[in-house]
Model the fold of this input.
Amino acid sequence: MNIIFYFTGTGNSLKAAREIAAVLGDTKLAAIPDHFGVDLFDYERIGFIYPIYFGGIPLIVKDFVKSLKIPKSVYLFAVATYGGGEWNGLKQINALLTPMGQGLDYGTVLQMGSNYILRYSRSENVDSVNAVAAKKLSKIAVSIRDRESRPCGKLNPLMSLPSWIFRCGVRKTVLKYHVSDDCTSCGLCAKICSVRNIKIKDGKPKFGDHCEQCLACLQWCPQKAINYRDKTKQRERYHHPDISVKDLMRKEELR
Ligand SMILES: Cc1cc2nc3c(=O)[nH]c(=O)nc-3n(C[C@H](O)[C@H](O)[C@H](O)COP(=O)(O)O)c2cc1C
Ligand code: SF4
Ligand code: SF4
Done:
């Protein structure tokens, strides 16, 4: 059996995880926030699929990898999805895994629709980017199934500095979020926040202090009621077209 750990805000990384799991067969998909420290001794292949944040790995992915005990001689792979600049998105995870016993056997990046609405409007070419990604994904899945080797190189820690600096601010993102009167108190944002950083109080979302800046709440709110400063109100929202809000909810939220 294989296991793929994924983290996602807008579905790109989940889409990639699902496609790879379908080709591998006998593969468990596991959301990273729910599986810290999980026992890994039953698996033949272990994968990590996540978005690149500020040219590196998201904080939660870093902490998650550190929580694991990786068994010897398992096939380790990673796919980092990104919008336009990959930088150290793979090398950072490899640098974490290597001292734990072994680095990645196979690592690759995959350009998909960019979700960074805090800076940019949804790009007009997301559909064509995702179409190219779908083709690449099929090949990546076959390579992983066939246990191919694809080393991802050594990290120059100095090159990682900018991403660590930017990531220091992510927990405070929500201080700049505001919720407009368009909010209908539907509760969706609280249900899809993968780190449970949102509670609905008095009919409105209240944000906690452990945001990952995944942008799920902002991107999926059906009313566009969550916004960042005055920047995002007019910007078109993005999520991967093959992923639905239900895919982001935990089982208990679906009852
Ligand atoms: C906080 C944050 C930082 C990001 N930084 C980068 C980046 O440095 N380079 C890049 O190409 N894309 C960046 N993106 C875009 C995402 O990596 C990309 O859209 C990814 O596929 C989203 O995956 P998801 O849909 O699984 O959440 C960033 C997105 C977020 C939310
Ligand atoms: S998803 Fe949007 S409309 Fe629903 S509770 Fe959250 S902010 Fe309000
Ligand atoms: S509060 Fe919003 S941006 Fe922050 S982790 Fe939750 S869903 Fe993602």
Summary: The chain has a mean pLDDT of 94. The pocket of iron/sulfur cluster (ligand 3) is lined by residues 9, 174, 193, 195, 197-198, 207, 211-217 (CB under 6 Å). The first helix runs from residue 12 to 24.
